[in-house]
Amino acid sequence: MLAHRGERILAFMVASAIGLSVLSFLAVIIATAAGVTDFDGGVWPVLIVLPAVGLPLGLVLMIALIVVSGIRRSRDARDASQ
Fold first, then answer.
1. For a designed S-S bond to 31, which of 13, 17, 36, 63 qualifies (C-beta 3.0 to 4.6 A apart)?
2. How many angstroms separate the CA atoms of 73 and 79, rounded?
3. Based on the structure, what is the number of domains in the chain?
């Protein structure tokens, strides 16, 4: 069970990075539709930049999760065959 802890942490990191990016993207779309034109102040600069950072980070974390999971599965299969 402890061996899967790193995978679980990576999975939650992927979900949070991509989820926050999608939510901030939707917030900007909804704000634009609602008539907001001044995105220079407040929290808007963070919401505009977050998808540009979060989505690539989520992709890198997803690749890391696939690699870690593959390594664990190959070790489990090798141990089970012995």
1. 36
2. 10
3. 1
